[in-house]
From TrEMBL:
Designated name of the protein: Transcriptional regulator
Positions that bind Ni(2+): 77, 85, 142, 144
Helix-turn-helix type domain residues: 9-61
Coiled coil: none
InterPro entries: 3H_dom_sf (IPR035922), 3H_domain (IPR004173), HTH_11 (IPR013196), NadR (IPR026043), WH-like_DNA-bd_sf (IPR036388), WH_DNA-bd_sf (IPR036390)
Residue intervals of the 3H domain: 73-167
GO MF entries: metal ion binding
Keywords noted in UniProt: Metal-binding, Nickel
Gene3D superfamilies linked to this entry: 3H domain, Winged helix-like DNA-binding domain superfamily/Winged helix DNA-binding domain
PANTHER family, alphabetized: TRANSCRIPTION REPRESSOR NIAR-RELATED
Organism taxonomic ancestry: Bacteria, Bacillati, Bacillota, Clostridia, Eubacteriales
Amino acid sequence: MSAMTASERRQQIARLLSASQAPISATTLSQELGVSRQIIVGDIALLRAAGQEITATARGYVIPAQNGLLRRIACIHSAEETRDELDAMVDCGCTVVDVIVEHPVYGQLTAPLHLSSRLDVDQFMKRMDGAAPLSQLTGGVHLHTLSCPDETAYEHLLQLLRQRGFLVE
């Protein structure tokens, strides 16, 4: 059996990411494809350069889902209220695509999140232990891009965030 070419390997990476709902780490991809992690990182860079939409998250690489309604909301809360905000979002069936803050020097800073469940939120909060959220740079004000299953879920989420005092309107 002949070895996989670099082009075939990149196609396989794209297939694996497309088929997965959850992020896949470079280490997992390297083990699956029998190459080094560094080769995978380079392949991801080449796939992106070729126009493939791949997002790097703290849990690995993901191809963002294109289904659902994309909405952007402005929120404000303390660092201690982060879990409550994120749980409300995923409990309404929305995926928290990213968090965005407006920095006075650097402009817009965006961090990919791709949180779709309470398990995702739990894992995110564990990684945040001891770290400050981006919103600390802006007095708690930040934006989230959300992918919601429908307008009803989005409206329900807005109502919950208003009740908790998290929504900036």
